[in-house]
From TrEMBL:
Keyword Transferase: yes
One Gene Ontology MF term: glucosamine 6-phosphate N-acetyltransferase activity
Name of the protein described by the UniProt record: GNAT family acetyltransferase
Protein species of origin: Ruminococcus albus SY3
Domain N-acetyltransferase: 1-144
Pfam families: Acetyltransf_1
InterPro entries noted in UniProt: Acyl_CoA_acyltransferase, GNAT_dom, GNPNAT1-like
Amino acid sequence: MVREIADADFEGLMKLYVQLHDNPFPKKDERVMAIWERVLADPDHHVIVCEEDGKIVSSCVCVIVPNLTHGQRPYAFIENVITDEKYRGRGLATACLDFARDIAVCENCYKIMLLTGSKKESTLRFYERAGYNKNDKTAFISWL
């Protein structure tokens, strides 16, 4: 089942995120929970999850960004694409990305952007099969 995150999904999402760049499981303190509440309350911040047998096994984030160009149509940004290593190769991340695309279409976005730090050919081919291309733009990052 693919859906948007709910308040009760904090633990499940954080367990999945441990596999994303070896993130440590965050301490469930006031600061972290304030971020969680902010994400849940933001109508432009969509955390999409795929759940199987009551466990969150895949996810991506889709943020809708208001915009003053392109006829004042917003754009979408995809981040934190992850599937539990035991569930990979089953189309779950693609289902999350398709759900994000549906949100972007409903929000009248003119484009969706996605960045990956992966250099693995299999990952790059996965994103291309999901409808993204690496030819139209050049990405630059300045880490803070």
